[in-house]
Amino acid sequence: MTIPTGSQNSPRPGAHSAFVTHLECSKTGQHYPKDTLLGMSDDGAPLIVRYDLDALGKAVTKDIVAARPPDMWRYREFLPLGDDIEAISLGEPMTPLVRLPTVEKRLGVADILVKDEGRLPTGSFKGRGMSVAVSMAKAFGVTRIAIPTAGNAGSGLAAYATRAGIESFVFTPADTPEITASEIAFHGAKAWRVDGFVGDCAKIVDDGTDVMGWCDFTTLKEPYRVEGKKTMGLELAEQYGWNLPDVIFFPTGGGVCLIAMWKVFNELKEMGWITGPLPRMAAVQSTGCGPIVRAFNAGARDVVAPWENVTTNVHGVRVPSPLGGTMVLDVLYESNGFGTAVDDDAVHAARAKICAEEGFHMCPEGAACVVALEMERASGRVGPGDRVALFNSASGLKSPMPPMTNFLEPGKAVDFSAL
Ligand SMILES: *Cc1c(COP(=O)(O)O)cnc(C)c1O
Question: Structural domain of residue 392, as residue ranges?
């Protein structure tokens, strides 16, 4: 059976909430009707969900939100699901802000908080987007989903699809960490390693979509993961007392998170929930794969050429040719932000140091934000008085650690002073 994902798909009244007005092409602004399952626009660009923010602001207040349970569904009105649509949820807690006092001291920055996204189901922020996107897919009657992924989006999809009774097909680069590859299969996805990069995986999904009747969950090829990831920005705003930090560093691969946070900050501003200047958004990438940072530093509006020679092993930022490059660059320019490319060696050293000094285990992508902050403190882009938010995008436990090789033999006397 083929599940059409194009605009010819038949509508399902009530799939979207009353606050959703329409979907919009990110390139041309063309409107598309709500309550219809759509992938991308007819111009091949990502679709954006638009809301009646006036009506939304009348239906819900900050106080109403504050009285709800501390999970991402407290912001339900900001999400696209219709009232009668079941949320496919595994329990998505509000993630905490963790202070890094030794880093604050070392860098001479007074206020550094890390939003720890490692606490979410499947151990990364990808759970937020997948919870909402799979809920919508289920509402539209989708039975099979496929995704190309560096890893965490795959385990997120696998978990939520299984929960929803939807089949999932996940394609990851061959060198995806064992723990993530195993996790994807363990959650019940049909999982495959592909000898190449995420772009090669994307080609397989593209080629198989018609034959297999897949709903294509490639980053930004469906409009709802962005909506789910907005909850990161909503939580951040609420946790900062609706007075957002001055600078936000995010480890950027496909760039969905920067796009999603910027979208919701603007929605909140239009609703009058936040005032004053919005944060400067900083895209953290790698010197071994930094197409967005390179384009930003060249003053370009588009990522025209893919990154040629990918050498980084920081998997979350290994996207040589981001589909939403233009949208991410727009966020950097509009927010007066910037891009920073960091070195793998510095990232792995920072991860080890922070884990040992602060007791806080960051993933490499999170540690990359600390390295970027250090560089931009030195460059002067970040000042001592700036309130800085960093994102630890996944649990440190999902990435390999140096082996521990100390052994004691039972029955032999222990030299305690040598322990
Ligand atoms: C996916 C991912 C990223 C990149 O996020 P984007 O929204 O694609 O830019 C960063 N870190 C980790 C751990 C990820 O899984």
Answer: 97-123+223-398
